[in-house]
């Protein structure tokens, strides 16, 4: 990751710039949901394509199974993501209400918790007592401090619907890519599979590259790692389809 120049950092840390940044509402991160949906969508559909090719099924069967899995699994994943984030929000709200109740019932005990938390950070004496006094004067600041420092939870709001929609859209868009060659009628089954393989590999690599750009990681390494993970899943699907066709005597 390239480090900013000193002049740039000094401009960003002027009092007015710091105030402006702190006044902004926290950004809701949707990229992890998009990456999750994209990778899983591509793995899902290409695994179906690989399994169908390994079993010797026709292009029509692969296309039908692929789109059926694309919609069903995409919806299922979006719902799962929604429920997961909603449960996380409810857990945070429950902890917040619990801390409010504790402050109302045993305020001195909660003040001592604040005192010990900041004592472990190196505060002591009058400075420590002043910190405790300032925090405990505002009930919501007090609750937020306990939420972050005692329970390790972030107070930033999460959007279950946004995450679910992002996951679903990314799943559909990226997951549909490996199916495109099977919609081309003049290609034989082998060429359709090879074209699907190349497209899936490209999708995996591009997703890995996108992660590297956003999170400032080595581009090639991130792309290759994502490609290897997706390729492993597709290889397992191909092997399973081929072995199943032999074990169960399926012939097309």
UniProtKB/TrEMBL annotation:
Listed transmembrane segments: 46-72, 164-187, 193-214, 226-250
Annotated stretches, region: Disordered: 1-25
GO biological process: intracellular manganese ion homeostasis
Keywords tagged on the record: Membrane, Transmembrane, Transmembrane helix
InterPro entries referenced in this protein's UniProt entry, alphabetically: Ccc1_fam
GO molecular function, one term: manganese ion transmembrane transporter activity
Localisation per UniProt entry: Endomembrane system
Membrane topology: Multi-pass membrane protein
Highest rank taxon of the organism: Bacteria
One Pfam family cited in the UniProt record for this chain: VIT1
Name the record gives this protein: VIT family protein
Protein's organism: Litchfieldella anticariensis (strain DSM 16096 / CECT 5854 / CIP 108499 / LMG 22089 / FP35) (Halomonas anticariensis)
